[in-house]
Amino acid sequence: MTETEPTRIAFVCVQNAGRSQMAYAFAKRELDARHTEREFDLVTGGTQPAEHVHPEVVEAMRNAGIDISARSPRAVTFEELQHSEYVITMGCSAADVCPAGFGGESRDWGLDDPDGRSPDEVAVIRDEIRRRVSALFDELTPSE
Q1: pLDDT given for residue 106 in this prediction
Q2: Which pLDDT belongs to residue 50?
Q3: Residues 43, 76, 92, 94: which is the catalytic one?
Q4: Domain span holding position 103
Q5: Mean pLDDT over the full length of the chain
């Protein structure tokens, strides 16, 4: 019996300082709640990472019960994208993120950048990301 490789999902944005960090954190929480941690490999990164996660994003996630204050933006590698079954971009097209192409399905969620937004505006973006992450895992882990 061979064990199948986990499905890799990459949450990507230009700076990896807001939307993709929120999506990654919500995805980790979804996997834990669904007990599907071994079925998925999550990646997050940016093409031009910022120096830190946006403070308004850290606060919005804290208000949702998730502490991302220790997270740092990172560069996403071509290899990570090449080996991802799903590349989820947050408002920038997949071609902008990885013009050379990648192996999986790309989806652009078309979300506004939370950088510099009011707490209420960031909360709306955060809640939409939470909804989309949950819907993604509903799709990828159908009930038996």
Answers
A1: 87
A2: 95
A3: 92
A4: 7-134
A5: 90
Q: Tell me whether residue 82 is one of the annotated catalytic residues.
A: no
Residue 65 identity (one-letter amino acid): G
Q: Is 89 among the catalytic positions?
A: no
CATH number of residue 125's parent domain: 3.40.50.2300
Structural domain includes residue 130: yes
Active-site option among 9, 10, 12, 13: 13
Kindly compute the dihedral angle of the four CA atoms of residues 38, 82, 30, 72, in this order, to the nearest 10 degrees: 110
Active site residue 92: yes
Is residue 95 pLDDT above 70, yes or no?
Answer: no
What residues contact residue 81 under an 8 Å CB cut-off, 6+ apart?
Answer: 10, 12, 87, 97, 98, 102, 103
CA 48 to chain centre: 15
Kindly report, residue by residue over 34-50, the tens digit of the pLDDT: 999 999 999 999 989 99
Tell me if 142 is assigned to some domain: no
Active-site annotation holder among 98, 111, 122, 136: 98
The amino acid occupying position 15 is Q
Give how many domains the chain has, as a whole number: 1
> What was the pLDDT predicted at 99?
46
Place of tokens 């995805």: 27
